[in-house]
Amino acid sequence: MAEVKSAEFKKASGRALRDEKLQHALDHVMEHFVGARANIIESDFGDESWEAMRTRAAAIKQSTLEHLDYYLDMVDRSVRRNGGHVYFADDAAQANAIVLDIAKRNGVKTVIKSKSMVSEEMGINHILEREGIEPVETDLGEYIIQLAGETPFHIIAPAMHKTRQEVSALFQQWLKTAPTQDIKRLCVYARDALREKFAQADMGISGANFVVAETGTVCLVTNEGNGRMTTSAPRIHVVLAGMEKVVPAIEDLALFLRLLPRSATGQRITSYNTFVGGPRAPSDEDGPEEFHLVFVDNGRLNLLRDEVMREALRCIRCGACLNHCPVYQKIGGHAYGWVYSGPIGAIVTPSMTNMKVARDLPYASTLCGTCKDVCPVKIDIPRLLLHLRHKVAEGDASERSTTWMERLFVGQWHSAMRNRRALEGKANLGRLLTRPFTRGGNVRKLPFAPMVSGWTASRDFPAPAPRSFARLWREELADGNTPANGTER
Amino acid sequence: MSPTPEEHPNKAAFLLRVRSALGRSEPIVHMPDHPSLKSNAARQQEKVRTVVARNQARRSRTLDRLARTAAAASWNVRRASDAEEAASIVAEIAHDAGVKSLVRSAEDIFKRVDIDGSLRSVGVSPAILASGRSRGRGMLRDMAFRADMGVTGVSYAIAETASCAVIPRRGVARLASLAPPRLVLLIEPEQVLESLDDFFAITRLNRMQARGRTANYFNFISGPSRTADIEQTLTIGVHGPGEVHMVILG
Predict the structure, then answer these.
(1) A140/B11 CB distance under 8 A
(2) Phi, psi angles (nearest 5°) of residue A105
């Protein structure tokens, strides 16, 4: 499985904030996505019908999840009826083993890949390379970050943090092309290099945007045409799908194909939609002779099991919550430390990987609620973030990651808030202790690492008033006393 | 037809874990309540009959809408009043682009629209992209990759999204509409549908009636191949055709 680096969230987001080039790219991109989405929804539907569509989509996905065992069985039967193979992998290691086995059995040397976030979870490229099989990403953005040896920066725009100069340098190094500033030219270089791979490859690996239970149809949503190439040119096609990708009926696709591209890139529809449910027919002119669909759990059961978190599995990976998130807009995707970033990453990463390692992610949000408003399947992301924060603070031993000092402090707080006398006593103590660190009405910097200084490390804390309200009341306001010219501080 | 592939050995255990995560101990016997799964072949047929009648009644308006949405999605739209005009439009496109090698599918529409004749008159001789003629996968692929232009028909065209549904089959190679840098699709009026809903309703019925002998594979082509993966700058024609033409008969 891909390494989880979420424990370094704070350090990594600090680095991102200081990276000027990155900040520029983020500003530019976010403006583009946010505007395009708003325009197309306004012009095609208006708020009211859009809202109705979201409600319906949320209900369909939720109901599918509540009956997931039934629908997975239905997909399995449908695909096998179509002549395809279906696999069920508990984790990344099992999924990798299944793909590797198919590749080895067929003497595969080159694998072409169309975008798949599950394959990022699995870290399959390393596994294939170790066995002497060459994996080639064919989505232009994925190809660029593969050459750079990085992970996707954004769910749908993986290389948005790279400038044309950087791409040109990568192509110079790997493809031996001439340097250029012309983006069109760079695309031609990539096209030519990848055409060669399309012709060589024995196996294509793709993800799945939707998997239709009743027909066993995998739907791919792409713009470049690499998804079509991957499902047309090689002899074998392998689909990697998270087990939550199922929708019940083929007619449901009309709704989801309206929601996804508009939410993602602000397009009415993407240039291509590929629908594949099995191998080519013998009478077909071309297309893969073998079709394999691998369903992957890899931590999704943890989300399914938790009734509050379950709705996170409704996600159709459009990226709208990333584009609209004030935190993502400043720190970008890499700081989140695993495959999924932004608000959706903050809720799925702790459950799918390790609650303690990813403990900072639920706090990477202002809880402004925009993510919930733009989500095409109405995931209540702020609520799920609070649920996770609760686990971090008060969950069982496997989830909780508070220090004894924090717990002591919160315990004291708790008892103080229930007793006026205790509150006054502790407030007076606080007033006394913070006085030496106060400048101009704010507590600037507290000592003692890390629990106490953490409060003021990146922000000022308003200093307590010299006299508490209770004291003020006793001394001046009670018994009909009125202050002469309002209350002084 | 080859035998149905085996069930994966981990399937039962996997589904059991899913079930217990959902707090159930028994499998679901009755189909969950889901409207778009419920209707049987007879009711689906009824539904499709209404869809077809509606599309017939509004045909000319839908054709106009298709032309509008297609233009907005960067299609080059040409409308031909008859087959002869359509054939000469295809020749004109090929000629203007300086096309040297052109591949087309083998479909019924070319019996009505004689592009072979019109193309020859501008000095282009079209080749049919089919495995019977190109001897195997490698040859067919090379031929498709080398071509400057591909011409095929469509199964449906959806006005809502300017999507052309292309269903590969005998005579219609997947690569014909994918590999060449220019693509021309010929559309007949009765193939045009108003919405995605119409298309999927028909697809569902076709499947029910064919008892699983329908195509395992089809595509929507809804515009030129595009990417914005470098600096969010829209660039046309990465892996698929960058120049796409819709020739509507009617």
Answers:
(1) no
(2) -60, -30
